[in-house]
């Protein structure tokens, strides 16, 4: 099921998902970009759709653990 393009994002968080969470947490806008860059390095890059290119998703557990430790 996760190989379907429409459902590929169910297996993780998109960059927009993480950015929305950071916008609620961060008080300085520049910090959002910095945190997204760090998350991209460690938790981004999963592709579940084999037939078409989809937006890479962030590992959910790693993203949430990062947010808990950072804030």
Characterise this structure.
There is one protein chain. With 71 residues, the chain is an all-alpha fold. The protein has one domain (8-70). The chain is 52% helix and 0% strand. The chain contains 3 helices and no strands. The chain has helices at residues 15-25, 29-43, 60-70. α1 (15-25) packs across α2. It starts with 14 loop residues before the first helix and ends with a helix.
The percent range for strand residues is: under 5%
Overall mean pLDDT: 82
Question: Any idea what the shape is?
Answer: elongated
Cα-based radius of gyration, to the nearest Å: 13 Å
- Count the domains: 1
Largest sheet: none
- What is the percent of helical residues? 40-55%
Oligomer: single chain
Tally the helices: what do you get? 3
Write the H/E string, N to C: HHH
Instruction: Kindly report how far apart the N and C termini lie.
Output: 34 Å
Number of strands: 0
- Which structural class should the secondary elements be placed in? mainly alpha
Q: Low-confidence segments, ≥5 residues, pLDDT <50?
A: none
């Amino acid at each position: 099921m996760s190989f379907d393009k429409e459902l590929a994002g169910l297996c993780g968080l998109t960059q927009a998902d993480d950015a929305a969470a950071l916008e609620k947490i961060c008080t300085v806008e520049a910090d959002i970009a910095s945190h997204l860059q760090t998350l991209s390095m460690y938790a981004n890059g999963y592709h579940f759709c084999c037939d078409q290119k989809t937006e890479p998703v962030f590992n959910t557990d790693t993203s949430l653990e990062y947010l808990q430790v950072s804030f």
